[in-house]
Amino acid sequence: MRALIVDDEAPARALLAELLGEIEGVEVVGEAANGFEAVRLAGELAPDLLLLDIQMPKLDGFEVLELVGDGPAVVFVTAHDEHAVRAFAVHAVDYLVKPIDPERLRAAIDRCRERLGRGEGNRERAREMAAAARPAGTYLARVVLREEGQIRILPIERIDFVEARDDYLHFHAGEEVHRRQQTLAALAAELDPRRFVRIHRSYLLQIDRLVGLDLYAKDSWVARLASGRKLPVSRAGYDRLRQVL
Amino acid sequence: MSARQAVPGLLRALVPLGLWLLAGLALAAAFALAAPGGLAETVAVALPLAAMLGALCVSAPYVVAASTLGGGRSGRALATALVAAIASGLLWVVVGSLWVRLLALGPFPAAPARFIAATALFFSVGTLGYLLAIARCHLRAAEERLRAAERQALEAELLAREAELRALKAQLDPHFLFNSLNSVSALIGSDPKAARRMCLLLAGFFRKSLGLGRQREIPLAEELYLAETYLAIEQVRFGERLQVAMAIAEETLTLAVPPLLLQPLVENAVHHGVAQLIEGGEVRVAARRDGAELELTVENPCDPERPASRGTGVGLANVRARLAALFGEEGRLTVDARPERYRVSLRLPARPAVAG
User: Fold this and answer.
1) Torsion of CA A153, A157, A161, A162, to 10 degrees
2) Any idea which of A134-138, B1-5, B15-19, B200-204 has the lowest mean pLDDT?
3) Pick from A167, A212, B96, B265: CA 20 to 30 A from residue B15's CA?
């Protein structure tokens, strides 16, 4: 079993490498000191197993797993995060707390062996866990995307609107458009409903970008954005807008 | 248990009865002196009238409450008390004269004449009795106010203790503790000497921070020792990513600071600043004297793309509240937040720390 260790602290990586080295049939193929490195190495090395720290700069453990996607089994590592631990329990995901207990590590590796080759659904699970690990009343703060091998972090503040097309979401931020695979309903559930309004089956609008609403036909409106762009507003979308405004 | 309690209960019920009897007998004696007559007649007049005055005095608390409503002036309260007392005295005399007339129809035909002879006595007793009742009510209200003030002082004290406890709890940041222990665990295998050094740093940090919480103020040197120890521990974890620069003016070392005031700012600088940067950066701590003020500054680089919600709100609010509580206008906390740099400054009166 080929393992990739992801932690931004060198002593923590060294400890995991040492402990994994003592477990038969496990080979540490790489160590990543941050999320970007982790995603790159996961692509290059195609490990069977990720040991993934939660708290890291720029990309946290959940976001790394979301970007790595299907493939490796995962064991999360955290020093102290009650919310994350609850999310792990709900999704039956293996996790370790620091300081690492070698016996627990061994038990987690054993369970991963049984699941080997079934590391599927990582992306959705990562998003769901990240949502569950968020304290109540807080919302998604940034969206991570992977485009042509490049990782992009899009802070929520920068999004003007999101458009659903086929299986993809198109994030419009100024001149830029980014896309990732997700449903509009799943994204909307993670955002602050006072800030983002589903104005149409295919459009989610950041409310402060709205400058005007024009009647277009009976029961049909057009939203005018600060950028000059116009978006269709459905009957239900109009009702939702009125509720928020 | 209940039987034992019943006896004092009964006694307590007997006390007013006894008092009333005593007052009644005193009134009878005074009546007999003012207008001599038969014993039976004297008692038949005085005892019921004493009860009557007792009943009238029941209204005294209402009079007091009405006259002191909305914190009225004492002059008004006095005037109200006098008017109510005189009215009560008059009412009592009227009731008394009706009562003696009733008695005259029965076995005591001389009662009205004697009562008229002692009218002045009855009027003064009625008025004074009522005034006494009012005075007692005022006394009780004052006692109540005193107790409320004591309770309030106690509550304020409790709040202060709670804030202190919260500061201490925050001090024992579980992230810091568990991550540090994990580092020790890692070093034991690769570098036992470094592991031992880390244990000593941790012990030094906790010993100091637990000791400091109990003191009202400490020399800045001690607070800085804590910050340096903390940063040294974090440097083991973060390695090259965490650089530290201290710029401390010599003369500030002996100045007094509230304990654990700087520490949360240093922790924020690591947690929300350097730890969020892949390349890391430098935490700068500075202390200087500016006239009559001590200025402490903590500065760190930060991620310009940090989410707005990832606040340092609670820790800062706590420090600000403590500054305000301790120094009022003279304590200030200012934040200079730029996209790539975060700076917090504290200003407080520069006073030498008391030795000990």
Assistant:
1) 30
2) B1-5
3) B96
Complex confidence, ipTM: 0.83
Whether pTM exceeds 0.95: no
For B187, name the nearest residue in chain A, comparing CA atoms only. Answer: A11
Strand partners, A217: A220
Q: CA B165, CA B160: separation in Å to the nearest integer?
A: 9
**Residue ranges of the domains in chain A?**
2-133, 154-244
A187 SS3 class: helix
Domain pair A2-133 / A154-244, same fold: no
Choose between B336 and B24: higher pLDDT.
B336
pLDDT digits (tens, 9 = 90+) for B21-57: 888 888 888 888 888 888 888 888 888 888 888 888 8
Determine the Cα–Cα distance for residues B179 and A81; give it in Å rounded to an integer.
12
The mean per-residue pLDDT over the stretch A98-110 comes to: 94
The domains of chain B, with CATH numbers, are 2-162 (no CATH), 172-349 (3.30.565.10)
Topology of A154-244 in CATH? OB fold (Dihydrolipoamide Acetyltransferase, E2P) (2.40.50)
Q: Determine which helix (DSSP H) or strand (DSSP E) holds B242, and give its type and residue range.
A: strand B242-248
- Residue A243: its H or E element: helix A235-244
Q: What is the pLDDT at residue B1?
A: 47
The answer to whether B10 contacts chain A (CB < 8 Å) is no
How far is Cα A108 from Cα A103, in angstroms, rounded to an integer? 9
Residues of chain A positioned with their CB less than 8 A from the CB of B175: 55, 79-80
Domain A2-133 has CATH 2.60.40.10: no
Nearest-angstrom CA–CA distance, A221 and B165: 57
Distance CA B317, CA B335 (A): 11
Structure tokens at B11: 């006694």
Which tokens go with A71?
């493939």
For an interface test with B, the pick among A5, A7, A13, A15 (most B C-beta atoms closer than 10 Å) comes out as A15
What three-state secondary structure class fits A217? strand
What is the 8-class DSSP label of residue B271? Answer: I
- A73-78 and A94-97 strand pairing: parallel
Residue keyed to tokens 């991620």: B303
Q: Using a CB-CB distance cutoff of 8 angstroms, which residues of chain A are in contact with residue B272?
A: none
Helix (H) or strand (E) holding B290: strand B281-290
Which structure tokens are listed for B212? 């400091």
Measure CB to CB from residue A18 to each of B189, B239, B278 and give the nearest one: B189
In the numeric block, which tokens belong to residue B40? 């039976």
Q: Which amino acid is at B131?
A: L
